[in-house]
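Hello,

I think I submitted the deoxyuridine-5'-triphosphate job twice by accident. Can you confirm which output corresponds to this input? Input:
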Amino acid sequence: MILSYFVQILKLPGNENVNLPRKMSEQASGYDLFAAIEGDLTLAPGARALVPTGIALAMPGGLEAQIRPRSGLALKHGITCLNTPGTIDADYRGEIKVLLINLGQEPVTIARNERIAQMVFQAVPSVTMVEVEELTDTERGAGGFGHTGK
Ligand SMILES: O=c1ccn([C@H]2C[C@H](O)[C@@H](COP(=O)(O)OP(=O)(O)OP(=O)(O)O)O2)c(=O)[nH]1
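Support: Only one job matched these inputs. Its output is below.
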């Protein structure tokens, strides 16, 4: 079943010429995000930058957007998102920004309107956490961190 939602998108003042997030193929999961920067931005090795996209969203409750790296930028240049996946909350109305980091050994220049990351929408279940004195039992119990390999 394909869930469908309406999401409002706004070009922020001064960003009338930015590209809207775009799916590069019909069934792509992610909408590519474009750098809404004036001129170029060079990231030295190890440097990070919060890159504006010039857009804001209004999503219905129960939806989030995840900001994920692009594999091509990561492979070719070592550019990824530091806080991946970035979380865009349904109630956030500010500018979507992308926290890029250069994990490569060379400086990398990002150009205006370059595709810097992708945005994937996800449904978020409604959860009510209930504090208890004891948890239900399972075969795994507290085993983890490679427990099943032993
Ligand atoms: O990659 C990101 C991550 C977050 N945000 C925006 C949307 C999100 O709804 C808001 C808050 O993000 P998050 O909850 O990750 O940040 P926080 O450090 O917990 O800050 P806050 O106290 O504002 O929630 O910042 C972005 O634009 N890009």
